[in-house]
Write a structure and sequence with these properties.
This protein has 15 helices and 12 strands. It is of the alpha/beta class. Helix 3 crosses helix 4 and helix 7 crosses helix 8. The longest helix has 39 residues.
Length: 595
């Protein structure tokens, strides 16, 4: 089969045909323009057009490839802008955008070019066969077209016509090869490259996730296929808590993922507590359907909808009334923990998009060796909840990778390992349950088998986690600004400390979120300093940003670019301060955002 549309393979014949047409046109030009005063101008224009046309034919393949790539790139650019809009530029640098769009465009462009090459080769082959069969033109006995001379008395072109006839006879000689070997090999090599790039793009569409991001995926899927009462986790009892308001767009994704997570933990090891209030969409209806699902799975739960027991303030702007309301609702969610008892871990989820295996990753951070662990809620400026998160020294964080200014935290994120912090929440968090219980109900955490990752129902772990209990050692005095200061004599140890509750800021404290004050109280009231952020746990309040940060930036090629080429581009050293940097101040809890 003769091949064409390659860089050199078949372009020679095309150029010969173009040259023949140009020569014939030139004959006519010489014939009819002798008396024209604009002959020099027309000659120049004709020469330029001939040159341009020849170049277009000679470089048809690279020109087409560039046009296809640029057109598809432009379409991806429109799609990118439609989904992400115009977010915070340092978190979405232009160079990264161009890199991502190039990666997305290459497989599609390669597929189009491969199809074009094959299609063009088939058309040429069909054309040649039809010419030999006499379906086009005046064909002689040898299967070639017969041409009759045009009676032009132009002596200057006779030699050129004779040269053209010799070239044509040489080309039609049966001993002459149809297509030189080197162009044919190049054509096949180029087709192979296009096909390989297109197939790799198709492969990446289904295999883009890093192994470190999906450690528990096979185990979670096993629990979905073959559910059992004890689950496939460690056997630890987990109290799942959440509250929702106008989340009709997010819950259809969150509920199936939470159901998978519950099957993974096992219905015998879970209690689900959710409160919904004041929604004016279908949030309550979706949660009631979820409650019915939990009932069918025989999962203990308490899902409260249309709650009006806690008055919602007229304005939900960031101010003390908002924090007091949110604290009260969160405490309402936690009430079944006291009533049920026996749960050693609390898993809190905000209204975020997250995967079931990511929930498992958070729960099993460092094999459960943490007092509190959080994920990363990423959005239009990068790391979103800057009001809450502080590095291990209590300082503000950056919104950009690797997020922390202290060397220990940033180095941990670079290694994809949990980073120590002084406070966090960031969309989803897990923590020990004992501080939420009265001192008389605190029993510590026994040793559990280390969580497995393989998809085998009979697999058993031969390693065990470390048991844990609240310390009986004396705690230092609380700062005078703390609402529990001074400590009572019978509450001077972590084991005897008063029950932990969500709260708003006291009069002389930095005005803070209830989500910040919880880890602050864990450290100050209970001496629990082992607070971590797991950089493998990605969640977001927006689907578009979730797709971008969870899958696009975690693709190995994009991740490499962010870490090795981009490397923060200097922006990572800039703090995100809410309310103006000149008004920020430092208190016992660390840096304070000046709302």
């Amino acid at each position: 089969m003769r091949v064409g549309l390659g860089a050199g393979a078949g372009s020679g014949g095309a150029i010969q045909r173009v040259q023949h047409t140009l020569d014939s046109t030139r004959y006519l030009f010489l014939r009819f323009s002798q008396s024209t005063p604009l002959r020099p101008v027309l000659g120049l224009l004709f020469t330029l057009c001939a040159l341009l046309f020849t170049l277009l034919v000679r470089f048809a393949h690279p020109i087409l490839a560039f046009y296809v790539f640029r057109s598809l790139y432009h379409l991806w650019e429109i799609y990118y802008a439609a989904k992400l809009g115009d977010p915070f530029r340092p978190a979405f640098p232009a160079v990264r955008k161009r890199y991502i769009l190039t990666l997305a465009t290459l497989p599609f462009a390669a597929g189009v070019m491969a199809a074009a090459m094959v299609g063009w080769a088939i058309l040429l082959c069909a054309w040649r066969r039809m010419r030999r069969r006499g379906r086009f033109g005046n064909i002689n006995g040898n299967g070639h077209a017969r041409y009759e001379a045009i009676p032009l008395n132009v002596e200057e072109v006779e030699d050129l016509q004779e040269e053209e006839r010799r070239k044509r006879l040489q080309k039609e000689s049966p001993t002459a090869p149809s297509t030189p070997l080197v162009p044919r090999l190049f054509w096949w090599a180029l087709l192979g490259v296009y096909t390989a790039v297109a197939l790799y793009g198709w492969h990446s569409r289904y295999n883009y996730e890093l192994p470190m991001d999906t450690r528990f995926k096979a185990r979670v899927e096993l629990a979905t296929r073959m559910p059992r009462r004890e689950g496939y986790s460690t056997g630890e009892k987990v109290f799942i808590a959440a509250m929702f308001y106008n989340n009709g767009g997010m819950l259809p994704y969150w509920i199936p993922q939470a159901t998978k997570f519950i099957n993974y933990l096992g219905p015998d090891n879970v209690f689900v507590s959710i409160v919904e209030s004041n929604s004016n969409d279908n949030t309550a209806a979706l949660l009631e359907e979820f409650a019915a699902t939990l009932t069918s799975l025989q999962v203990p739960h308490k899902i409260t909808t249309h709650d009006t027991s806690i008055p919602r303030p007229p304005s939900m702007e960031t101010a003390p009334p908002r924090i007091e309301f949110l604290s009260a609702v969160r405490n309402l969610v936690m009430e079944p923990l006291l009533e049920q008892g026996g749960y050693t871990r609390v898993f809190w989820s905000n209204d975020v998009f997250i995967e079931a295996e990511t929930m498992a990753e958070l729960l099993h951070t460092r094999d459960g060796d943490y007092d509190m662990v959080c994920g990363l809620d990423l959005a239009y400026w990068g790391l979103y909840d800057q009001w809450v998160i502080r590095d291990r020294m209590g300082r503000f964080a950056s919104t950009l990778w690797p997020y922390f200014f202290d060397e220990t935290g940033s180095a941990a994120v670079m290694r994809n390992e949990p980073a120590p912090v002084s406070a966090c929440w960031n969309g989803v968090t897990a923590m020990r349950a004992d501080p939420f219980l009265p001192a008389s109900q605190r029993k510590g955490v026994p040793a559990f088998p280390v969580a497995l990752t393989e998809a085998s129902p009979s697999a058993q772990s031969d390693k065990r986690t470390q048991p844990w209990t609240l310390s009986h050692n004396q705690l230092p005095a609380l700062p005078l600004t703390h609402p529990l200061s001074p400590r009572l004599a019978n509450e001077s140890t972590p084991a005897d400390a008063p029950q932990l509750r969500f709260r708003s800021s006291a009069k002389d404290e930095c005005f803070s979120s209830e989500s910040f004050l919880l880890p602050y109280d864990l450290r100050r009231v209970f001496g629990m300093e082992n607070i971590l952020v797991n950089p493998l746990v990605i969640c977001s309040y927006s689907w578009e940003f979730y797709v971008y940060f969870k899958w696009v930036t975690r693709h190995w090629a994009v991740k490499w670019f962010i870490e090795q080429v981009e490397n923060g581009r200097g922006y990572a050293q800039a703090q995100m301060i809410l309310g103006g940097a000149h008004r920020a101040w430092v208190w016992d809890g660390g840096d304070c955002h000046p709302w």
